[in-house]
Design goal:
By secondary structure, this protein is α/β, with parallel strands linked by helices. It has 14 helices and 13 strands.
Amino acid sequence: MSEKNKTRSIPAFHGSDIEKISEYFRIPKEKIVKFGANVNPLGLSDSLKKRLADNLDIITEYPDRDYVSLRKVIADYCKVDMDHVVTGNGSTELISLLISHRNAKHALLIGPTYSEYERELSLNGGVISEYQLNETDNFQLNIDHLFQSISEDIDFIILCNPNNPTSSAIHKKELTTLLHIAKEKNIFVMIDETYVEFAPDINEISAMSLVKQFDNVMIIRGVSKFYSAPGLRLGYGVTSNESFLKTLKTYQNPWSLNSIASLAGEIMLQDHEFFQKTRSLILSERERMINELKLLKYAKTYPAYANFILIRILKENLTSYDVFEAAVKQGMMIRDCSSFKGLDGEYIRFCIMNPEDNTRLLNCLQELLND
Protein backbone atom coordinates (compact mmCIF):
# COMPACT_ATOMS: atom_id res chain seq x y z
CA MET A 1 0.00 0.00 0.00
CA SER A 2 1.26 3.50 -0.81
CA GLU A 3 2.48 5.83 1.93
CA LYS A 4 -0.48 8.16 1.37
CA ASN A 5 -3.01 5.37 1.73
CA LYS A 6 -1.31 3.92 4.82
CA THR A 7 -2.44 6.95 6.79
CA ARG A 8 -6.10 6.25 6.02
CA SER A 9 -8.37 3.46 7.18
CA ILE A 10 -9.65 2.22 3.83
CA PRO A 11 -10.88 -1.16 2.62
CA ALA A 12 -8.81 -3.22 0.18
CA PHE A 13 -10.69 -4.31 -2.93
CA HIS A 14 -9.50 -6.58 -5.70
CA GLY A 15 -10.53 -6.87 -9.33
CA SER A 16 -13.31 -9.40 -8.74
CA ASP A 17 -14.72 -7.96 -5.49
CA ILE A 18 -17.90 -6.65 -7.09
CA GLU A 19 -20.15 -7.87 -4.23
CA LYS A 20 -17.98 -6.25 -1.55
CA ILE A 21 -17.80 -3.00 -3.49
CA SER A 22 -21.56 -3.03 -4.10
CA GLU A 23 -22.25 -3.52 -0.40
CA TYR A 24 -19.69 -0.98 0.82
CA PHE A 25 -20.78 1.82 -1.52
CA ARG A 26 -24.46 0.78 -1.52
CA ILE A 27 -24.61 0.63 -5.30
CA PRO A 28 -26.43 -2.26 -7.03
CA LYS A 29 -23.77 -4.45 -8.63
CA GLU A 30 -25.76 -4.49 -11.87
CA LYS A 31 -25.08 -0.76 -12.18
CA ILE A 32 -21.30 -1.08 -11.80
CA VAL A 33 -19.13 -1.45 -14.90
CA LYS A 34 -16.32 -3.86 -13.99
CA PHE A 35 -13.20 -2.11 -15.24
CA GLY A 36 -11.18 -4.05 -12.65
CA ALA A 37 -11.86 -7.62 -13.80
CA ASN A 38 -9.96 -7.57 -17.14
CA VAL A 39 -12.70 -9.62 -18.84
CA ASN A 40 -13.76 -9.19 -22.48
CA PRO A 41 -16.75 -6.77 -22.47
CA LEU A 42 -18.43 -8.63 -25.34
CA GLY A 43 -19.36 -11.51 -23.05
CA LEU A 44 -20.13 -14.95 -24.44
CA SER A 45 -20.82 -15.19 -28.15
CA ASP A 46 -24.40 -15.94 -29.22
CA SER A 47 -23.25 -18.98 -31.19
CA LEU A 48 -21.61 -20.44 -28.08
CA LYS A 49 -24.76 -19.92 -26.00
CA LYS A 50 -26.90 -21.64 -28.62
CA ARG A 51 -24.52 -24.58 -29.09
CA LEU A 52 -24.29 -25.18 -25.35
CA ALA A 53 -28.06 -24.92 -24.90
CA ASP A 54 -28.56 -27.44 -27.70
CA ASN A 55 -26.11 -29.89 -26.14
CA LEU A 56 -26.92 -29.84 -22.43
CA ASP A 57 -27.45 -33.61 -22.50
CA ILE A 58 -23.68 -33.89 -22.69
CA ILE A 59 -23.59 -33.71 -18.88
CA THR A 60 -25.21 -37.16 -18.74
CA GLU A 61 -21.91 -38.64 -19.90
CA TYR A 62 -18.37 -38.61 -18.59
CA PRO A 63 -16.01 -36.45 -20.64
CA ASP A 64 -13.20 -38.16 -22.55
CA ARG A 65 -10.55 -38.73 -19.89
CA ASP A 66 -7.78 -37.66 -22.29
CA TYR A 67 -9.76 -34.74 -23.81
CA VAL A 68 -8.43 -35.71 -27.24
CA SER A 69 -10.85 -33.57 -29.28
CA LEU A 70 -10.33 -30.49 -27.10
CA ARG A 71 -6.56 -30.90 -27.08
CA LYS A 72 -6.56 -31.17 -30.86
CA VAL A 73 -8.47 -27.88 -31.11
CA ILE A 74 -6.08 -26.22 -28.65
CA ALA A 75 -3.08 -27.52 -30.60
CA ASP A 76 -4.47 -26.09 -33.84
CA TYR A 77 -5.29 -22.80 -32.12
CA CYS A 78 -1.77 -22.47 -30.69
CA LYS A 79 0.02 -24.13 -33.65
CA VAL A 80 1.71 -26.71 -31.42
CA ASP A 81 1.91 -30.49 -31.17
CA MET A 82 -1.20 -32.00 -29.56
CA ASP A 83 1.00 -34.28 -27.45
CA HIS A 84 2.40 -31.16 -25.77
CA VAL A 85 -1.03 -29.95 -24.60
CA VAL A 86 -2.57 -30.58 -21.19
CA THR A 87 -5.96 -29.28 -20.02
CA GLY A 88 -6.96 -28.22 -16.52
CA ASN A 89 -9.68 -26.89 -14.24
CA GLY A 90 -8.73 -23.30 -14.94
CA SER A 91 -5.17 -22.08 -15.36
CA THR A 92 -5.02 -21.99 -11.55
CA GLU A 93 -5.03 -25.80 -11.33
CA LEU A 94 -2.20 -26.08 -13.84
CA ILE A 95 -0.17 -23.38 -12.11
CA SER A 96 -0.62 -25.26 -8.83
CA LEU A 97 0.35 -28.60 -10.36
CA LEU A 98 3.34 -27.13 -12.11
CA ILE A 99 4.68 -25.39 -9.02
CA SER A 100 4.09 -28.30 -6.65
CA HIS A 101 5.62 -30.96 -8.88
CA ARG A 102 8.57 -28.94 -10.11
CA ASN A 103 9.41 -28.74 -6.39
CA ALA A 104 11.53 -25.64 -6.91
CA LYS A 105 14.17 -25.04 -4.28
CA HIS A 106 14.54 -21.35 -5.17
CA ALA A 107 11.91 -19.69 -7.34
CA LEU A 108 12.09 -16.24 -8.87
CA LEU A 109 9.02 -14.09 -9.49
CA ILE A 110 9.27 -11.29 -12.02
CA GLY A 111 7.09 -8.56 -10.58
CA PRO A 112 5.04 -6.64 -9.81
CA THR A 113 2.68 -9.43 -10.78
CA TYR A 114 -0.30 -11.65 -9.99
CA SER A 115 -0.30 -12.61 -6.28
CA GLU A 116 -1.49 -16.21 -6.84
CA TYR A 117 1.99 -17.27 -7.99
CA GLU A 118 3.53 -16.37 -4.64
CA ARG A 119 0.71 -18.07 -2.75
CA GLU A 120 1.25 -21.33 -4.60
CA LEU A 121 5.02 -21.13 -4.19
CA SER A 122 4.68 -20.51 -0.46
CA LEU A 123 2.65 -23.72 -0.11
CA ASN A 124 5.54 -25.62 -1.68
CA GLY A 125 8.03 -24.54 0.99
CA GLY A 126 10.91 -23.36 -1.19
CA VAL A 127 12.71 -20.02 -1.16
CA ILE A 128 10.98 -17.22 -3.09
CA SER A 129 12.84 -14.23 -4.51
CA GLU A 130 11.55 -11.33 -6.53
CA TYR A 131 12.99 -9.38 -9.42
CA GLN A 132 11.14 -6.10 -9.74
CA LEU A 133 10.66 -4.48 -13.13
CA ASN A 134 11.89 -0.89 -13.25
CA GLU A 135 9.32 1.90 -13.53
CA THR A 136 11.83 4.13 -15.33
CA ASP A 137 12.03 1.46 -18.06
CA ASN A 138 8.21 1.40 -18.33
CA PHE A 139 8.31 -1.99 -16.57
CA GLN A 140 10.08 -3.62 -19.54
CA LEU A 141 12.30 -6.57 -18.61
CA ASN A 142 16.06 -6.29 -19.23
CA ILE A 143 17.16 -9.90 -19.77
CA ASP A 144 20.87 -9.26 -19.28
CA HIS A 145 20.32 -7.39 -16.04
CA LEU A 146 17.98 -10.11 -14.82
CA PHE A 147 20.58 -12.88 -15.09
CA GLN A 148 23.38 -10.67 -13.81
CA SER A 149 21.47 -9.92 -10.62
CA ILE A 150 19.94 -13.27 -9.64
CA SER A 151 21.58 -15.90 -7.47
CA GLU A 152 23.11 -19.06 -8.93
CA ASP A 153 20.72 -21.41 -7.11
CA ILE A 154 17.57 -20.14 -8.90
CA ASP A 155 15.90 -23.16 -10.51
CA PHE A 156 12.44 -21.81 -11.41
CA ILE A 157 11.25 -18.53 -12.96
CA ILE A 158 7.67 -17.31 -13.27
CA LEU A 159 6.85 -14.73 -15.89
CA CYS A 160 3.46 -13.26 -16.83
CA ASN A 161 3.50 -12.08 -20.46
CA PRO A 162 1.80 -9.66 -21.05
CA ASN A 163 2.19 -8.86 -17.40
CA ASN A 164 -0.52 -8.12 -14.88
CA PRO A 165 -0.77 -5.32 -13.63
CA THR A 166 1.78 -3.43 -15.75
CA SER A 167 0.48 -4.51 -19.20
CA SER A 168 4.12 -4.61 -20.34
CA ALA A 169 5.41 -7.49 -22.49
CA ILE A 170 8.52 -9.30 -23.63
CA HIS A 171 8.95 -9.96 -27.34
CA LYS A 172 9.87 -13.29 -28.92
CA LYS A 173 13.52 -12.37 -29.52
CA GLU A 174 13.95 -11.59 -25.82
CA LEU A 175 11.98 -14.70 -24.83
CA THR A 176 14.35 -16.82 -26.92
CA THR A 177 17.32 -15.31 -25.10
CA LEU A 178 15.62 -15.83 -21.74
CA LEU A 179 14.88 -19.50 -22.40
CA HIS A 180 18.34 -20.13 -23.84
CA ILE A 181 20.13 -18.73 -20.79
CA ALA A 182 17.67 -20.46 -18.45
CA LYS A 183 18.37 -23.77 -20.23
CA GLU A 184 22.10 -23.33 -19.71
CA LYS A 185 21.52 -22.66 -16.01
CA ASN A 186 19.07 -25.57 -15.59
CA ILE A 187 16.17 -23.21 -14.83
CA PHE A 188 12.57 -24.13 -15.67
CA VAL A 189 10.39 -21.23 -16.81
CA MET A 190 6.63 -20.85 -16.46
CA ILE A 191 5.09 -18.27 -18.78
CA ASP A 192 1.52 -17.19 -18.07
CA GLU A 193 -0.01 -16.02 -21.37
CA THR A 194 -3.49 -15.29 -20.03
CA TYR A 195 -3.59 -11.94 -21.83
CA VAL A 196 -1.58 -12.71 -24.98
CA GLU A 197 -4.57 -12.77 -27.35
CA PHE A 198 -5.06 -9.07 -26.62
CA ALA A 199 -1.52 -8.16 -27.78
CA PRO A 200 -1.16 -6.02 -30.92
CA ASP A 201 0.84 -8.83 -32.57
CA ILE A 202 0.25 -12.16 -30.82
CA ASN A 203 3.05 -13.98 -32.61
CA GLU A 204 5.57 -11.38 -31.48
CA ILE A 205 4.64 -11.83 -27.81
CA SER A 206 3.74 -15.51 -27.48
CA ALA A 207 6.37 -18.17 -26.75
CA MET A 208 4.25 -20.96 -28.29
CA SER A 209 6.55 -21.30 -31.31
CA LEU A 210 9.51 -21.84 -28.94
CA VAL A 211 8.03 -24.84 -27.12
CA LYS A 212 9.44 -27.38 -29.56
CA GLN A 213 12.92 -25.88 -29.25
CA PHE A 214 12.98 -25.55 -25.46
CA ASP A 215 11.82 -28.25 -23.03
CA ASN A 216 12.48 -26.03 -19.98
CA VAL A 217 9.30 -24.02 -20.40
CA MET A 218 5.59 -24.45 -19.83
CA ILE A 219 3.08 -21.93 -21.17
CA ILE A 220 -0.20 -21.46 -19.31
CA ARG A 221 -3.38 -20.03 -20.83
CA GLY A 222 -7.12 -20.00 -20.17
CA VAL A 223 -10.43 -18.71 -21.50
CA SER A 224 -11.40 -16.48 -18.56
CA LYS A 225 -10.31 -13.13 -19.98
CA PHE A 226 -10.33 -13.18 -23.79
CA TYR A 227 -13.35 -15.47 -24.09
CA SER A 228 -15.17 -13.91 -21.12
CA ALA A 229 -15.67 -17.22 -19.31
CA PRO A 230 -14.02 -17.12 -15.85
CA GLY A 231 -16.78 -19.32 -14.41
CA LEU A 232 -16.10 -22.08 -16.91
CA ARG A 233 -12.75 -22.90 -15.27
CA LEU A 234 -11.00 -24.03 -18.45
CA GLY A 235 -7.24 -23.70 -18.66
CA TYR A 236 -4.54 -25.36 -20.70
CA GLY A 237 -0.79 -25.70 -20.70
CA VAL A 238 1.79 -26.43 -23.37
CA THR A 239 5.25 -27.94 -22.84
CA SER A 240 7.56 -30.29 -24.72
CA ASN A 241 9.01 -31.68 -21.48
CA GLU A 242 7.62 -35.20 -21.83
CA SER A 243 8.68 -36.49 -18.42
CA PHE A 244 7.03 -33.53 -16.75
CA LEU A 245 3.85 -33.94 -18.81
CA LYS A 246 3.70 -37.55 -17.64
CA THR A 247 4.08 -36.42 -14.02
CA LEU A 248 1.34 -33.82 -14.40
CA LYS A 249 -1.08 -36.34 -15.85
CA THR A 250 -0.26 -38.82 -13.09
CA TYR A 251 -1.07 -36.42 -10.28
CA GLN A 252 -3.93 -34.53 -11.88
CA ASN A 253 -7.40 -35.59 -10.79
CA PRO A 254 -9.23 -37.56 -13.51
CA TRP A 255 -11.96 -35.64 -15.35
CA SER A 256 -10.76 -32.37 -13.84
CA LEU A 257 -12.58 -30.61 -16.66
CA ASN A 258 -16.35 -31.14 -16.95
CA SER A 259 -18.17 -32.01 -20.17
CA ILE A 260 -19.66 -28.53 -20.66
CA ALA A 261 -16.26 -26.84 -20.29
CA SER A 262 -14.66 -29.30 -22.68
CA LEU A 263 -17.30 -28.70 -25.37
CA ALA A 264 -17.30 -24.94 -24.78
CA GLY A 265 -13.54 -24.85 -25.23
CA GLU A 266 -13.78 -26.52 -28.61
CA ILE A 267 -16.48 -24.08 -29.74
CA MET A 268 -14.71 -20.97 -28.42
CA LEU A 269 -11.32 -21.65 -29.91
CA GLN A 270 -12.81 -22.22 -33.34
CA ASP A 271 -15.00 -19.11 -33.32
CA HIS A 272 -12.95 -16.98 -35.70
CA GLU A 273 -15.63 -14.30 -35.98
CA PHE A 274 -15.68 -13.71 -32.20
CA PHE A 275 -11.87 -13.73 -32.13
CA GLN A 276 -11.62 -11.00 -34.76
CA LYS A 277 -14.49 -8.98 -33.29
CA THR A 278 -12.81 -8.95 -29.87
CA ARG A 279 -9.42 -7.96 -31.24
CA SER A 280 -10.94 -5.21 -33.35
CA LEU A 281 -12.67 -3.72 -30.30
CA ILE A 282 -9.73 -3.99 -27.91
CA LEU A 283 -7.02 -2.81 -30.28
CA SER A 284 -8.95 0.24 -31.49
CA GLU A 285 -10.22 1.26 -28.04
CA ARG A 286 -6.82 0.72 -26.42
CA GLU A 287 -5.19 3.06 -28.93
CA ARG A 288 -7.91 5.68 -28.47
CA MET A 289 -7.74 5.54 -24.69
CA ILE A 290 -3.96 5.69 -24.51
CA ASN A 291 -3.88 8.68 -26.84
CA GLU A 292 -6.34 10.53 -24.60
CA LEU A 293 -4.69 9.43 -21.36
CA LYS A 294 -1.35 10.78 -22.54
CA LEU A 295 -2.92 14.25 -22.56
CA LEU A 296 -3.65 14.12 -18.83
CA LYS A 297 -1.53 16.64 -16.95
CA TYR A 298 -1.12 14.68 -13.73
CA ALA A 299 -0.73 11.09 -14.95
CA LYS A 300 1.86 8.87 -16.59
CA THR A 301 0.51 6.26 -18.99
CA TYR A 302 2.54 3.14 -19.72
CA PRO A 303 2.64 1.16 -23.00
CA ALA A 304 -0.08 -1.52 -22.93
CA TYR A 305 0.00 -4.96 -24.55
CA ALA A 306 -2.91 -6.51 -22.60
CA ASN A 307 -6.56 -5.45 -22.44
CA PHE A 308 -5.84 -3.15 -19.51
CA ILE A 309 -3.87 0.03 -18.96
CA LEU A 310 -1.73 1.08 -16.00
CA ILE A 311 -1.33 4.74 -15.13
CA ARG A 312 0.55 6.52 -12.36
CA ILE A 313 -1.13 9.41 -10.56
CA LEU A 314 1.15 12.44 -10.27
CA LYS A 315 -1.21 14.91 -8.63
CA GLU A 316 -0.19 15.94 -5.12
CA ASN A 317 -2.53 14.73 -2.36
CA LEU A 318 -4.55 12.60 -4.77
CA THR A 319 -4.28 8.89 -3.97
CA SER A 320 -5.09 5.82 -5.99
CA TYR A 321 -7.96 5.14 -3.60
CA ASP A 322 -9.30 8.66 -4.16
CA VAL A 323 -9.52 7.96 -7.88
CA PHE A 324 -10.97 4.50 -7.31
CA GLU A 325 -13.65 5.95 -5.02
CA ALA A 326 -14.54 8.74 -7.42
CA ALA A 327 -14.91 6.28 -10.28
CA VAL A 328 -16.98 3.72 -8.36
CA LYS A 329 -19.38 6.41 -7.20
CA GLN A 330 -20.04 7.00 -10.88
CA GLY A 331 -20.67 3.29 -11.38
CA MET A 332 -17.21 2.30 -12.64
CA MET A 333 -15.02 -0.17 -10.74
CA ILE A 334 -11.33 0.27 -11.55
CA ARG A 335 -8.40 -1.30 -9.71
CA ASP A 336 -6.57 0.56 -6.97
CA CYS A 337 -3.08 -0.94 -7.34
CA SER A 338 -1.82 -0.06 -3.86
CA SER A 339 -1.98 -3.74 -2.85
CA PHE A 340 0.44 -4.82 -5.60
CA LYS A 341 3.89 -5.49 -4.20
CA GLY A 342 6.49 -3.51 -6.12
CA LEU A 343 4.26 -0.64 -7.24
CA ASP A 344 5.61 2.16 -5.07
CA GLY A 345 3.51 5.22 -5.68
CA GLU A 346 -0.04 5.92 -6.75
CA TYR A 347 -1.19 3.57 -9.52
CA ILE A 348 -4.53 2.55 -10.97
CA ARG A 349 -5.34 -0.11 -13.55
CA PHE A 350 -8.45 -0.47 -15.68
CA CYS A 351 -9.43 -2.75 -18.53
CA ILE A 352 -10.92 -1.81 -21.88
CA MET A 353 -14.69 -2.03 -22.00
CA ASN A 354 -17.28 -0.93 -24.55
CA PRO A 355 -16.61 2.48 -26.18
CA GLU A 356 -19.36 4.38 -24.34
CA ASP A 357 -18.16 3.11 -20.95
CA ASN A 358 -14.55 3.86 -21.84
CA THR A 359 -15.54 7.43 -22.67
CA ARG A 360 -17.27 7.80 -19.30
CA LEU A 361 -14.12 6.64 -17.52
CA LEU A 362 -11.91 8.95 -19.57
CA ASN A 363 -14.16 11.88 -18.64
CA CYS A 364 -13.90 10.94 -14.97
CA LEU A 365 -10.11 10.75 -15.12
CA GLN A 366 -9.87 14.03 -17.02
CA GLU A 367 -11.82 15.77 -14.26
CA LEU A 368 -9.50 14.36 -11.60
CA LEU A 369 -6.11 14.50 -13.33
CA ASN A 370 -6.24 17.82 -15.12
CA ASP A 371 -6.40 21.30 -13.59
